[in-house]
Amino acid sequence: MAVRLDADVLAHHLATQRWFAGKGRAWSVTDVRTVAELRAPGPDAPGVRIDLIQVTYDDGGTETYQQPLVSYADDVEHLSHAFVGHEDDGAGGVRWLYDALHDKGSTGLWVEGIATDRTGPGFAFHREPTATELPPGGPSIVVGAEQSNTSLIFGDTLILKVFRKVSPGLNPDIEMHSALAAAGSTHIAAPLGWLEGVWERGDGEPTTASLAMSQEYLKGATDGWELALTSVRDLYAEADLHADEVGGDFAGEARRLGAATAEVHAALARVLPTGRLEGKELVALADGMRARLDRAAAEVSDLAPYADALRGAFDDVAALDEPVPVQRVHGDFHLGQVMRTLQGWKLLDFEGEPARPLDERRGLETPVKDVAGMLRSFDYAARHLLADHPGDPQRAYRATEWAERNRDAFLAGYAEAGGEDPRRQPVLLRAFETDKAVYEVLYEARNRPTWLHIPMAAIDRLAGKQRDE
User: Fold this and answer.
1) Most buried of 167, 269, 349, 465 (most Cβ within 10 A)?
2) In 10 A of CB 348, how many CB atoms?
């Protein structure tokens, strides 16, 4: 099918979407292709066209975004918020195109495709081998909070994640969930299946890419970030009590989360490749951390005075004389990536950092990276409410107390569940926590300046610890 949507129309559409990562850079739409058409049986059944939009940046980089489209002969009022643009219908008229993920009459095509392992020109649905029975689904609702992808909940039984930024190859979220399901892990939402797109490259060779995945919906689960914030609010409300004396103490949950994380890491090490970093590889790891620090310090003046002390943490990594075990890890681990259910903690979104290339996200890394990410998340949960109370030393002290208590509990739970105790790897733990804090400084300076105090408090602590040693 010839694509008739104008490139400028698509560029305007992309620029207004939360999942488009190119904001703040100069770019243009340079190619659009229809990779597949999904259609239910029957001549009058609704259909969905899946377009891939290539964006080229002025600095030479490219990205590809997925846009499922549904077409109507007239304006559909209840889809006005999902309008993409008009295109020529080939007969002198125009069609109204909408984002198909907001059209309840079309979204069932993904669920039905997974259930039947449907294939067709340009696409193949795959049912997860461990999914012996698929839940019934129901009407779809778009999840509003997501940033880099679009997820839909069907009834209260399953969730579909549609990957907006598409790269050739198997998405790590699918790969890791399938591996953990095969390993019998109880700390994930069960995978149900996925959609793969297929098209020819310029040389005629086929290219495949993951377009969507489905999992069981964790009905009644609570987001880890929200649970942690509730505990922090309880602490702030009790001015004369310590963190371990407040009814909403989170340390027990933090310990259980640490144990769940260790068990997931152990399962991944059993079923996916492992390796070791040593010598030049550790030097390269440290060089990458130093380079990120230098770029951030050049942009954020508050960071620059700490740069020399922070580099010491990375120098220590380069100087390690013992090999560092590496494996597949979560890669973007924080309290927003975990859910508390009646059956315990569940880990979500093994996609890794969406801004990184796919081959990097599928690489082997030390589990300490995930541990450090969660430690930073505890610090964020404790301190982000301080923005409403600047210059309050009592609240700042209590935030530190809460963060330290829950960081310690998480590490203890991780070690008790059989994971290598991260506290026995102080060089790696400090380096990855520092690297994460540097990333946070740059992010907050660019996007939420009023939150800059959160990572800067960690920078001050980490730099001071390095000086003391």
Assistant:
1) 349
2) 21
Q: Say if residue 423's pLDDT is above 80.
A: yes
Asked whether residue 38 carries a pLDDT value surpassing 70, the answer given is yes
What is the length of the chain? 469
DSSP 18: T
Query: Which candidate, 374, 356, 279, places its Cα nearest to that of 317?
Result: 279
* End-to-end Cα, the chain, rounded Å: 65
Provide the phi-psi class of 349: left if phi over 0, else alpha when psi is between -120 and 50, else beta.
Answer: left
Answer whether 126's CB lies under 8 Å from 118's CB.
no
Q: Which of 109, 123, 130, 128 is nearest to 195 (CA)?
A: 123
Instruction: Choose among 11, 66, 61: nearest CA to 33.
Output: 66
Q: What is the CA radius of gyration of the chain?
A: 24
Note the pLDDT tens digit of each residue in 388-414: 666 677 778 888 999 999 999 999 999
Contact in structure between 257 and 338 (CB atoms under 8 Å)? yes
Which pTM does this prediction carry? 0.91
Which domains does the chain show, CATH number per domain? Answer: 7-102 (no CATH), 111-216 (no CATH), 222-328+364-468 (3.90.1200.10)
Closest by CA to 149, choosing from 107, 101, 193, 113, is: 101
The distance from CA 176 to its chain's CA centroid, rounded to whole angstroms, is 13
- Residues 215, 192: contact at Cβ < 8 Å? yes
